Predict the structure.
Amino acid sequence: MSIVLNPYARPDEWMAALHRLLPDDEIVAWPDVADPDAVEFVIAWRLPRADLQSYANLRAILSLGAGAEQWQQPGVPEVPVVRLADPAMSDEMATYALHWVIRLQRNFDASIAQQPAKVWEQPGYVQAGSHRVGILGFGTIGARVAKAFVDLGYPVNGWSRSGGETEGVTHYAGTDELDAFLANSDSVVNVLPSTAATAGLLNAERLASFAPNSVFVNMGRGTVVDESALVEALDSGPLRAAVLDVTDPEPPVDNSPLWTHPAVTLTPHVAGSTQVASASKLVADNIARIRAGEAPFPLLDRARGY
Ligand code: GLV
């Protein structure tokens, strides 16, 4: 039997790490799969469905991403899919959110802009204790991001389907409480995945509910927000700035206003990358669990979509 490997980046590091962790396994770098029938596991960010369909004895897919929409496309075999829940990735995503929220809240760009003119003046800003940070999506990543802000003295709101109880966090639950969550957050950080329930969740009406002069940071999925309504909300609605690490599609089409809008900052899906050292261990542990007849974690729930 063999394991097919197709990471998004750092293939050599991945191969070396997996050889160390799974010394008795044959690990094959996709697409060089000589014997499709021998494939037991796939460890990948993505793989063409035709290839997946040719692995007749595939037991499970170990995904190298937190989001799992790519494994729910028509034609992907319905074997168990294990998502990646890596605290190291959550930490990195927290640094992305901290950077952008703080940069905008502290108004650092105003300081930078005056340097060429040799101006030494202190631009004003709202202090942390009065800047409410809303985390849209409160799974493991959302909870980690929330903690980063709580620890620095920001009032934090969390929105999820079912709410929760977290020290320092005001929880909002379900669509009924979404508008209040948005209205009470000066920065909204989205970490929601792409599912049927989140598609277009931030439509024109919801974007109009954002707090005056607020900031939207999207490091979840682009499908969650109606991008033309977002541009409207920046031009004539309550939004001051949008920082988008994810768009729909990625990258935005050539004539998308997102590329040139003065209040939009784009980054190319870099908020959280898969960390080989920690992720390879999680993947190897999950393979061991499956082989021992135990449940791997976290298993994609196809009904829920993540
Ligand atoms: C990245 O977007 C991921 O899903 O891990």
